[in-house]
């Protein structure tokens, strides 16, 4: 379903999507009210939802859509402004699966091409995730999602945390040495997952620095850092080139740049890198992991949260080869089990856990205990 008050945008996006044989546009709506009235009958799996519309805007429509169809995936379409970034992140806290920043399509052909590529990739990943969940629910593998109004933190219980389909996931023992840095990678669905993770780690990460790579454009990462600090009380900010890592501080890779760490004497220093995108991403988790393995070796504790693609898999292998430890979010609680699924099925993890179980597990490892 495409929801936008602009007939030009609706027509352009709908045409792009119809040109892909794997995507069907089942409904086009002029505003949120029309979308809410028709979302059940059109059987949409994914909704592209504009934010600013007459009669009912996207933020008002979002909870109504997710309540009407609890496992539907909503992608917010926002402008590349600070206000657009702020609203997009608030939307993900209210049930949106992802967002796409809208360029000036008529003025910037390159930006329009990137927008088209990204939105098609996200629709396919989210649609596949919805179908997978529905199929597993039909087979009795997972429970039906609760309505948004009844969901609460900690309500999700572990379901087959160490299985992919019917095949067991090979787990490895966590490092026995002290963890000296926590590194987190995430993408689709990541902002809300990060908030949940760090809410559970309050008071648990004061003894080590934390670095985060979330796939996001510039402006969005600064807003995300503010949201993490506001919700969890943990100090979080965009990383700056040349900063010395400090215990208890959360550093997030700035949009459009890789976050690396290098050794300078006895200190570990942040380097912001404008090198080529990896896995079509900048920032990317892989270069962050590789640099951490060089500096901290077995002292790296890495966490891979929900996200499409396989970013973090190759860098994760470097981490575990250096003696470090990886944890991954499980399929049932991931918006898209691409990134965590890649490290899990590769046999790189010491645990594959529901989102609400990751913080307690990480806290035990940071404190020197086992899983």
Structure characteristics:
371 residues; alpha/beta; Rossmann fold; 11 helices
- Global outline: globular
Estimated structural class: alpha/beta
The residue fraction in helices comes out at 25-40%
The top level CATH class name of the largest domain: Alpha Beta
Q: Over the alpha carbons, how many angstroms does the gyration radius reach? A: 20 Å
Report the CATH topology name of the largest domain. Rossmann fold
How much strand?
A: 15-25%
Q: Name the CATH homologous superfamily of the largest domain.
A: Methylesterase CheB, C-terminal domain
Low-confidence stretches: 144-161
CATH architecture descriptor text of the largest domain: 3-Layer(aba) Sandwich
Q: Gap between N and C termini, in Å?
A: 43 Å
What's the story with the biggest beta sheet? Answer: 7 strands, parallel
How many structural domains does the protein architecture include? 2
The SSE string, one letter per element, is EHEHEHEHEHEEEHEHEEEEHEHEHEH
Largest sheet, spatial ordering of strands: 10-11-9-8-14-15-16
- The helix count comes to 11
